[in-house]
Specification:
Radius of gyration: 23 Å
CATH superfamily of the largest domain: TolB, C-terminal domain
CATH topology of the largest domain: Neuraminidase
Number of helices: 4
CATH architecture of the largest domain: 6 Propeller
Distance between the termini: 45 Å
Strand content: 35-45%
Shape: globular
Number of strands: 33
Largest sheet: 5 strands, mixed
């Protein structure tokens, strides 16, 4: 048996044994698993706000003793009744409901016969007129520590259930690949990495694909984390010497930390890398650089270097920014501290500026910059006009919440959360009002309401796009085999 087949077989066997030990059928999920609270339905779509162009919210009732399930959806003069444990919409039914409910609420009445008699309750779904970018990319990866197998980067149409692979292990010799990111939600401006022999940074710029070696002799490593400038000519990146290590304390499985890290800028027009003395100091670690919405600043995370791994729990990163010259590609001026680790007593990572320039969304944990195994890791929203921190209690859970991205109009964001089982990351969406109010997030809908019950891979770094990328896995496979990587100096 192949290693990946053995892994999947073992996972299914453990899941089956767990369910049998609980005295439940395999097709019934314990109430609340994979969500942020107990609920008689899964996914739990009660009291959420959804965009008017989202795919149908299919779900099922979790009560194993229930029968005669009836669900009535009402919006305006329209009423739709669906019967059965699995609530699965027909496309025309859902389209009519969205048209009737946009800008208002769907009232839902659920009834069924339980072990102790009839059960009935009313709940609602608010349908926002703010549309969401129709495309979501993410990497599917098995939760693990230092190994990977059968990686795929998929693009999902959020208005339907259509998915397609834009890169996968079948076409790239099972090499490692890192997650795909859009520049401010643009389908025609994005990039990801193919690692190993034949690999490089795959830049999608105005429909043209290039494979790039983003490293020169002054850099401590190839580029790792980064973002493309809104105008497309430049990219800002960190270079990192990354150490993965199993934890001996703190109750966490694994930690990833930097022995060294600096910042650099790539000029995609001139095939040139630029490094800067101010961000090449050995006593300061810099990582996760991103551009401001107007491209005039670079936000990144910075920490004083410490003896590692001995003092890993004391490694805390502040959020800082530097001016960026969009004519020359140079990082200028001193760094301004936007969020101080010493004052907050915590560590920041993964900053993302909203495309409208109003908000900065980032992740906060107790220490370090690898939050997926930190249960205390939460999202944090800063108002860039005031510096104030908004209330995200409706969004955050008691598990890791991170790896977020903005819709191109800044009205929605998506993030990966391990809420519920604590192991598998899944994409959740929340709406942001002009005043910074956020809504209770909802889980990415699937055609099969039992999809997440047996899904044994995480959705890693979900990223929103306003249009499909103009390539697929076969094209990436051809580039991997046939196209040499362009060198940068």
């Amino acid at each position: 048996m192949k290693r990946n087949d053995l892994i999947r077989f073992t996972g299914f066997l453990l899941a089956a044994l767990l369910l049998l030990s609980c005295g439940r059928r395999f097709d019934v999920r314990p109430a609340g698993t994979g969500t942020d609270r107990s609920s008689p339905l899964f996914p739990d779509y009660t009291d959420v706000t959804i965009p008017c162009n989202i795919a149908p919210l299919n779900f099922y009732y979790t009560d194993p003793d229930g029968s005669r399930f009836t669900t009535v959806f009402s919006a305006g003069s329209l009423s739709v009744t669906l019967r059965g444990r699995e609530v699965v919409w027909k496309e025309k039914q859902w389209t009519r409901l969205m048209a009737a409910a946009t800008g208002s609420d769907i009232t839902v009445v659920s009834t069924y016969r339980g072990a102790d008699g009839p059960v009935s309750w009313q709940w609602s779904i608010h349908v926002s007129p703010d549309r969401i970018d129709p495309y979501l990319t993410y990497r599917l990866i098995e939760p693990g520590f230092e190994v990977w197998d059968d990686l795929e980067i998929q693009e999902r149409n959020l208005e339907s259930f259509e998915t397609r692979n834009i890169s996968d292990w079948r076409h790239t010799g099972n090499h490692c690949m890192n997650c795909h990111i859009h520049a401010q939600g643009r389908g025609d401006l994005s990039m990801f990495y193919l690692r190993g022999e034949g690999g490089g940074a795959i830049l999608n710029r105005n429909g043209t694909l290039r494979k790039l070696t983003l490293q020169d002799s002054a850099m401590i490593s190839p580029t790792v984390y980064g973002e493309i400038h809104p105008e497309g000519r430049f990219g800002v990146f960190s270079t990192n010497i990354i150490i993965p290590a199993m934890h001996a304390a703190f109750g966490r499985r694994m930690e990833v930390f930097d022995r060294a890290s600096d910042l650099c800028v790539a000029d995609f027009d001139a095939n040139r890398m630029m490094t800067f003395p101010e961000t090449a100091r050995k006593d300061v670690l810099e990582t996760f650089p991103v551009f401001s919405a107007d491209g005039r600043f670079v936000y990144y995370c910075a920490a004083q270097a410490r003896p590692l791994p001995a003092e890993i729990d004391q490694l805390t990163y502040s959020l800082v920014r530097r001016p960026f010259n969009a004519e020359t590609g140079v990082l200028e001026g001193p760094a301004d501290t936007v969020w101080s680790a010493s004052q907050r007593g915590a560590s920041v990572c993964h900053p993302k500026a909203s495309p409208d320039g109003r908000w900065l969304l980032f992740t906060v944990a107790e220490y370090g910059t690898f939050p997926i195994n930190h249960r205390e890791c939460d999202l944090c929203l800063m108002d860039l006009t005031t510096g104030g921190i908004m209330d995200l209690n409706l969004v955050n859970s008691d598990k890791s919440d991170t790896y977020h991205s903005w819709a191109s109009d800044a009205r929605w964001f998506v993030f990966a959360s391990k809420r519920g089982d604590g192991l598998y990351g899944k994409p959740w969406f929340s709406h942001v009002s002009p005043d910074g109010s956020v809504t209770r997030p909802f889980l990415l809908p699937q055609k099969n309401p039992h999809f997440y019950d047996t899904m044994l891979r995480s959705f890693n770094v979900p990223d929103l796009g306003n249009a499909p990328v103009g390539f697929d896995a076969a094209e990436i496979g051809r580039i991997w085999k046939e196209v040499p990587a362009e060198s940068f100096q």
